[in-house]
Q: What sequence folds into this?
């Protein structure tokens, strides 16, 4: 694992072996002595280009710098010394900008992908794209895709995600990837959920990143068995008022469970909700339903409902149920009117 402190200590060791000050070393690398100081303390890390310059300056390998030490050389005979060439490491291949060489090293030893992931923060995006292009058909794990996501372009990441099966997309993986996926890929995942290719449970974390069109399209599948009610509740904060209004209408006709209105109510335009409740009070909306929706109804709707209850059009129990949510001045006036009768 790359440890900036170990790398920094090794750079400091190499500099002191040359009897250079931080300023002298900085001048040779065309950086500030403050940058050298931050490297040596582990507060920052050189990028790949600078690592390559450091390796050349101190006659070491980039991998040595990444590991924070030089490997112990194997004992060989003089005759074999020139014949044996240590294999090029991932760090050296990265520093040399050789994506094909990196891909070959990983294919030969898949565990070397960990080294690529560790070096990703200091690897140019164009080089990462080249490496991924060279590694088509490589079996990336979910963890590797998640770790690589911040360093890949949208097209490359989309290809990796599209290759995942429902069984491979587990837990919070999509939540982790969502901020790095482009809009078409995110919306395609929503469609895959509707088609049963991935679990609907994966949509909750995607909701803030989906387009309005995709969200509304998902919501319209409520009631047909494809989008469970609890999933609609998770999507509700992100739905358009138009779609929320359609869902309200569908609840009245019985296409959507009426109980879902309580979870939708905080996000629906109050006037629209008030009109609906007033139109169907005593019919589709009984006392319990109106009581649960009362905190989200505008004062005008609440007052009209109370008046209807006072006039006998609605059950008298509505008075007690709605009273806590009505303006006290109006409630006092209504009581006085009733007492006057």
A:
């Amino acid at each position: 694992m790359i440890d900036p402190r170990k790398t920094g200590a090794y750079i400091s060791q190499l500099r002191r072996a040359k009897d250079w000050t931080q300023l002298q070393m900085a001048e040779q690398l065309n950086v500030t002595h403050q940058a050298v100081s931050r490297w040596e303390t582990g507060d920052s890390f050189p990028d790949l280009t600078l690592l390559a310059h450091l390796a050349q300056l101190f006659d070491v390998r980039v991998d040595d710098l990444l590991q924070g030490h030089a490997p112990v050389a194997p004992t060989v005979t003089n005759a074999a010394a020139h014949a044996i060439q240590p294999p090029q490491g991932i760090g050296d291949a990265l520093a040399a900008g050789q994506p094909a060489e990196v891909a070959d090293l990983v294919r030969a030893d898949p565990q070397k992908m960990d080294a690529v992931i560790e070096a990703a923060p200091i690897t140019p995006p164009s080089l990462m794209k080249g490496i991924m292009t060279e590694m088509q058909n490589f079996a990336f794990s979910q963890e590797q895709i998640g770790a690589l996501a911040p360093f890949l372009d949208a097209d490359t990441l989309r290809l990796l995600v599209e290759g995942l099966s429902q069984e491979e997309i587990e837990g919070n993986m999509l939540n982790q990837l969502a901020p790095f996926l482009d809009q078409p890929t995110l919306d395609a995942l929503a469609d895959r959920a509707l088609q049963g290719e991935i679990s609907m449970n994966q949509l909750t974390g995607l909701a803030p990143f989906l387009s309005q069109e995709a969200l509304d399209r998902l919501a319209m599948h409520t009631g047909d068995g494809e989008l469970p009610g609890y999933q609609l509740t998770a999507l509700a904060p992100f739905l358009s008022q138009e779609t929320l209004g359609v869902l309200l209408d569908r609840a009245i006709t019985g296409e959507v469970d009426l109980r879902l209105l309580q979870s939708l109510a905080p996000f629906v335009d109050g006037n629209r909700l008030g009109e609906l409740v007033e139109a169907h009070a005593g019919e589709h909306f009984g006392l319990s339903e109106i009581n649960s929706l009362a905190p989200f109804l505008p004062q005008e709707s609440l007052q009209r409902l109370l008046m209807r209850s006072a006039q006998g059009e609605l059950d008298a129990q509505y008075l007690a149920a709605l009273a806590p949510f009505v303006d006290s001045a109006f409630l006092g006036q209504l009581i006085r009117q009733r007492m006057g009768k």
Q: What stands out?
A: The chain has a mean pLDDT of 85. The chain is about 60% helix and 0% strand.
